[in-house]
Specification:
- It is built from five helices and six strands, in the order βββββααβααα.
- By secondary structure, the chain is α+β, with helices and mostly antiparallel strands.
- A three-stranded antiparallel beta sheet has the order 1-2-3, with no helix packed on it.
- A hairpin with a 5-residue loop joins strand 2 and strand 3.
- Helix 1 crosses helix 4.
- About 15% of the residues are buried.
Length: about 160
């Protein structure tokens, strides 16, 4: 019995909507699947590609303006915080982007995005977390910095 989506994958030879999958394999770093199909009517073979459809995410800035989510921009900030630390910034960026895509988020505030990054950094490395937080939260002076370090130290002592 053909799947509902096959209705739109008609045989290019005879137009029959029914086909069976002969072979499937991932392509493009797992972002799409190549399928060899055989028409159930004329037995001709053809290839289809399934591509993951991604949601366009808008980031709402502090001033209310909106811009398209830019993974490279997020990754840049994470990488600066993780410099010379045993943390894989690419993994964090991929996790956050996947989370946003899986939740079908269409808009997220820059504040929420920053908090998501800080949670992931805090779970992995205190130094990378403090580096990111100092820029993100715009620490104004040494007292603000020390207060954040004290909270972090108290938290780690309770573990």
């Amino acid at each position: 019995m053909p799947c509902a989506y096959q209705e739109f994958m008609r045989c290019p030879n005879c137009g029959c909507p029914d086909s069976k999958v002969i072979d499937s394999r991932p392509v493009e770093e797992g972002n799409s699947i190549r399928r060899r199909r055989e028409c159930l009517e004329c037995q001709k073979r053809f290839t289809t590609f399934e591509v993951l459809e991604s949601v366009q995410i808008l980031v709402v800035k502090k001033d209310g303006s909106k811009e398209l989510f830019d993974r490279s921009k997020m990754l840049s900030g994470i990488m600066k915080a993780c410099q010379k630390r045993p943390v894989k910034g690419e993994e964090i960026a991929a996790e956050i982007e996947a989370e946003l895509q899986n939740n079908l988020v269409q808009e997220i505030s820059s504040r929420q995005l920053g908090e998501m990054i800080m949670v992931k950094l805090k779970q992995r490395d205190d130094v990378a977390y403090v580096r990111f937080a100092s820029v993100y939260r715009e620490f104004k002076d040494l007292d603000t910095f020390l207060a954040e370090l004290k909270v972090l130290k108290d938290h780690s002592e309770r573990k």
